[in-house]
């Protein structure tokens, strides 16, 4: 049953999750699916156990949104066939019903014992995912926030064409860190660092497959995970084709401005410490950085004020 051997890979974009999945996909008994933004993306799993789909009209609306997703289209499923199959199951329907059907169809003919679903937004709704997939396991890959933000500035995105906003990024990193801390020690949750994966790939991957419970550790000669990524998404993941190098870990020091480095050092000081990332002196000071730093401080504390006001006004 997919419910018994399903692993969710959680992450923040540009954290090395695709590289991790490429390495796991090399094992004969592990199958890694491609990404999709199911309705509810990026903060919820829908429909929930408390608010399920109760009729054909609601199911049709859900599938309209699902099949409109640029990534889910690459799963190669037919909407009408999916609708008939799911409505035939009877109501109510929840996310696990829909996801299990779609994943089974996507992996039709694949005999691997373990299946991996790679999607970063499950981080924020782990309680609901655990309720719907009680036997599932969860892997979170973490990376130095300076490395992530540096990569975000250079990257393209399917869902958001805008370059990263550092204040939004910092607040998002804080939010994810709180979730990670809440789950450390849970038997179904594994945290690993991208930097450790690059430094000692064999050791980290061994710990991951042991956590998954993989018994058959034979590998396939087919290591073409990059080719499984849809063509319209491959440009987002060019770095996974080869073996990543430790030389890439500190590129952020030349890509981030002095004020950006200082902001991450200051506002993510606690988070850097939690994950054992060093607080390094910012490099590349320019006269404009004095002004930019003041602006970043202003916007950061303004964002905290807005968040605080929203929480107080929420009944």
UniProtKB/TrEMBL annotation:
<dbReference type="InterPro" id="IPR051135">
    <property type="entry name" value="Gal/GlcNAc/GalNAc_ST"/>
</dbReference>
<dbReference type="GO" id="GO:0006044">
    <property type="term" value="P:N-acetylglucosamine metabolic process"/>
</dbReference>
<dbReference type="GO" id="GO:0006790">
    <property type="term" value="P:sulfur compound metabolic process"/>
</dbReference>
<dbReference type="InterPro" id="IPR027417">
    <property type="entry name" value="P-loop_NTPase"/>
</dbReference>
<dbReference type="GO" id="GO:0001517">
    <property type="term" value="F:N-acetylglucosamine 6-O-sulfotransferase activity"/>
</dbReference>
<protein>
    <recommendedName>
        <fullName>Sulfotransferase</fullName>
    </recommendedName>
</protein>
<dbReference type="Pfam" id="PF13469">
    <property type="entry name" value="Sulfotransfer_3"/>
</dbReference>
């Amino acid at each position: 049953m997919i419910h018994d051997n399903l692993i969710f890979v959680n992450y923040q974009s540009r954290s090395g999750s695709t590289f991790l999945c490429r390495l796991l996909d090399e094992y004969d008994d592990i199958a890694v699916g491609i990404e999709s933004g199911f309705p509810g993306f990026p903060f919820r799993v829908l429909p929930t156990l408390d608010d399920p789909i109760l009729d054909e009209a609601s199911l049709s609306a859900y599938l309209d949104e699902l099949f409109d997703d640029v990534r889910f289209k690459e799963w190669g499923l037919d909407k009408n066939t999916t609708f008939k199959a799911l409505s035939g199951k009877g109501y109510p329907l929840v996310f696990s019903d829909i996801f299990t059907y779609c994943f089974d169809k996507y992996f039709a003919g694949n005999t691997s014992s373990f299946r991996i679903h790679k999607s970063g937004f499950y981080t924020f709704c782990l309680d609901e995912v655990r309720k719907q997939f009680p036997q599932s396991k969860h892997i979170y890959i973490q990376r130095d926030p300076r490395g992530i933000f540096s990569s975000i500035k250079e990257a393209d995105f399917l869902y958001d064409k805008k370059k990263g906003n550092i204040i939004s990024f910092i607040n998002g990193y804080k939010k994810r860190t709180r979730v990670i801390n809440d789950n450390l020690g849970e038997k179904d949750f594994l945290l690993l660092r991208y930097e450790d994966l690059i430094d000692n790939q064999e050791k980290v991957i061994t710990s991951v497959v042991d956590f998954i419970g993989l018994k058959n550790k034979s590998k396939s000669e087919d290591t073409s995970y990059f080719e499984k990524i849809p063509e319209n998404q491959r440009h987002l993941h060019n770095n996974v084709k080869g073996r990543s190098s430790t030389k890439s870990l500190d590129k952020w020091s030349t890509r981030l401005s002095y004020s950006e480095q200082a902001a991450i050092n200051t506002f993510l000081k606690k988070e850097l410490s939690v994950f054992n990332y060093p607080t390094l002196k910012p490099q590349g000071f320019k006269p404009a950085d004095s002004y930019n730093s003041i602006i970043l401080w202003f916007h950061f504390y303004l964002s905290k004020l807005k968040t605080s006001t929203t929480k107080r006004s929420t009944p």
